[in-house]
Specification:
Length: 181
């Protein structure tokens, strides 16, 4: 396996968790909606666990959560413009259910950011004006989603030979292949 690249990928994701300005901090999450349409949106990478599961936060009433309940396979797209690196990741998403873990994460979320999970009506609801959005005081819809990866595709554009590597999880082990870019 292309170990050095795999380590580089994991190291970059770990760095992105800690560094707000890392290009992998913000990524595109793809789910498949009920009508089998690809649905994309931007989310923030919050954690990478010891088992290399990726974690992001969301409102449990959001469309992405509805999609994930129908089809828990999700795609994620990261892009490092400076180094011309694209990382595509695929995995199985699940909501973190452990109340103690969620309470610990919630504790560390700044008051101003808690508003992202406390609107009185679900994300995507129609309002007359942006100022009309109201917030709950004693209830929230915060949740954290964990994605267990089963495929990674790394692409690095270079002046001469581009590098493309696919990592597939087979029976618990990552298997890698170089691909034509
Ligand atoms: C820079 C940026 C970061 C965002 N981060 C998150 C996030 O971490 N979690 C989240 O649920 N939505 C985040 N959003 C909002 C989503 O892109 C999206 O609009 C919202 O989650 C509703 O998506 P859905 O209806 O497809 O579920 C972010 C948006 C931007 C522009």
């Amino acid at each position: 396996m292309s170990q050095s690249y795999y380590k580089k990928i994991v190291d970059s994701l770990q760095e992105a968790v800690e560094n707000r300005s890392h290009p992998f901090k913000i990524f595109t999450l793809g789910t498949v909606g009920l009508d089998r349409m690809a649905r994309l949106r931007t989310v923030v990478l919050r954690d990478i666990t010891a088992n290399q599961e990726l974690v992001f936060y969301t409102d449990r009433r959001s469309k992405k959560v509805t999609h994930m309940k129908e089809n828990n396979k999700v795609g994620m797209l990261f892009y490092d413009q400076e180094n011309k690196i694209q990382l595509k990741a695929e995995g199985v998403a699940s909501l973190i259910k452990d109340e103690d873990i969620l309470a610990g994460l919630w504790k560390d979320i700044a008051e101003v950011n808690r508003k992202d999970y406390t609107t009185t009506t679900p994300p995507g609801s129609i309002v007359k004006h942006p100022d009309d959005v109201e917030y709950l005081k004693d209830k929230d819809y915060f949740t954290a989603v964990k994605v267990t990866l089963f495929k990674l595709e790394y692409l690095q554009l270079q002046p001469v030979n581009h590098i493309k590597i696919r990592y597939s999880k087979l029976e618990g082990n990552w298997v890698s292949e170089y691909l034509v870019p």
